[in-house]
Amino acid sequence: MIELEQARLRLEELGLVQAAEALDAKLESAGRTQSTYLSFLNELLETEILERQRRNVEVRMKLSHLPYRRTLSEFDFTFQPGIDERLIRELAALTFVGRQENVLFLGPPGVGKTHLAVAIAMEAIGQGLPVYFVSLAQLVGDLRKAYEENRLDKRMRVYLRPRILIVDEVGYLPLDPLAANLFFQLVCARYEKSSMILTSNKSFGEWGELMGDAVLATAVLDRLLHHSHVVNIRGNSYRLKEKLKTGIYSAPSAQVGQKYPGASGSN
Known about the structure:
single chain, alpha/beta, Rossmann fold, 2 domains, six-stranded mixed beta sheet, 11% strand
């Protein structure tokens, strides 16, 4: 027993806390199965590694600011049959990140744009890639404050650092000239350096109105779409799925029929 306690203390001194906690159980298991010393050691160290990986994922999850956790397995592709499921699963393989490409999800509210963005982000976090999630309103509000306080360069680095920056809800609120210019600066700074995922309820033809400047909107889209995958989602809202089934609610015709130019696929 003294030797056992000494071994546990030495593991803790080395920072192998999970291995120290699992020592008794692993020794008992090794005795039952008559494991070799090497097999016992590998199993003990594997316990420590798995726990460290779990903690690292949790830390990256918190730093990502994801609004919730959603996976691709939770996405109902049968409810949105117009989506190319194969393309989505290819995006979840994250090869687009290595090529510094962007992903744009377009469609009316509630069709799953943010869910898909979050699901891809969770795959990236699981593979150790830094991710940051922010709505466009929060983004430009934060950058505006930094600009007014003469610390824009320092704050901009927060949005340049992650391998994947997710900008949600592009188009829900129009941008004033300063906000549009700050967004343009960010897109330029990340262009061909790291990936962005954007969700928007506006077709590209409406971005000029969104940004209050057609020329600036064209410049933003030119950079976003140069190396990109555009996914259009035309369908009804998940949030109202049950009410649509029962006939309590029918989607407004303008929402169902709205066009989001740019076919699903890659550019």
